[in-house]
Each structure stands twice: as structure tokens, then as C-alpha cells.
Design a protein that fits this description.
Blueprint: E1 2-4, E2 9-16, E3 22-30, H1 37-55, E4 59-63, H2 71-90, E5 94-98, H3 100-108, H4 115-126, H5 133-147, H6 151-157
Parallel strand pairs: 1-4, 4-5
Antiparallel strand pairs: 1-2, 2-3
Amino acid sequence: MGIDPGLSNLGWAIIEDKDPPNLIDFGLIKTEKELNEEERLLKVYNSLKNIYKNYYPTYTVIENIYFKKNIKTAIKIGEVKGVILLIAGEFKSKVYELNPSNVKLYFTGFGGSKKNNMKKMVKILYNIEIKEDDTVDAIALATSFINLKSLREKSDLIS
């Protein structure tokens, strides 16, 4: 399962690890800005829990957040990440984090790819057009993880 964490928009994707990878399901969890933060995090928790109940993902792959210009945004994403880690722990899904440049590299072949390139790769790999950046990122996260061929490579690149 790939998850692009965010409080307003959280993209997720379930991809089966086979050759070629098989996109099973995907979506976007949105929370309304009018809700207080606890209500928004609860909505994320309940929505993700339903997804985990449906698919019991073996692995959860999220984007490694190492720098944000806006500290308030970084804190909110960190809180959402905490919700993700909690649910992954409840469902015994092993969590990995990938750096954005590694995701782009293993998804498109170029670490500096733009959003349009990511969307084109989703179209090429899964024959589907997706407009939401967060959902595309979740698909890219899960696919990139699958594309890491050996456990040794994973331990070198995944923190």
C-alpha cells in the first residue's frame, strides 16, 4: 500500500506485487478545513482503517518528509504520519519510507521528474488517467517499492 500523507488530501493505492505490478484500488481521502484538527485526523484514521480492513496490506510505503518550508504544514503531515503508523501497527503492516527523489527515480527512471511525468507513467503502467497529485504519488510510492528488486537494495535506500 502506498500512502501520500496529507491532512487535506491523502492519496492511497493498493498494488499487488507481481510482474508487472497490478493496481488493485486507489483513492483520495479529503478532510474539510471547517472541521477541527481532531475531527480531521479521526476522519483520516477511520477511512484508512476501512481500507486496511479490506486489503490487509503486507507493506505500507509512505513518503519520507525530511524538509518543509512551512513548519506548520510539516507538523500537520507529521500528525497524519502518526495516524498512518498507528493503523499500520494495528494491522501488522511493515512500514517503509522512501525519499521523493528515489520514488521518482524508481517510478519514471529520473529522480527529477515532474508531476506530469508521474501522471504519464501511471497512464503507461496502469492504463488509467488520474488527476489528483496525491493519488498519483501514492501509486508511485507503492510501485517504486515493488521496483526495488532486492532486500539489500531496500535496506540501502529505505530509511
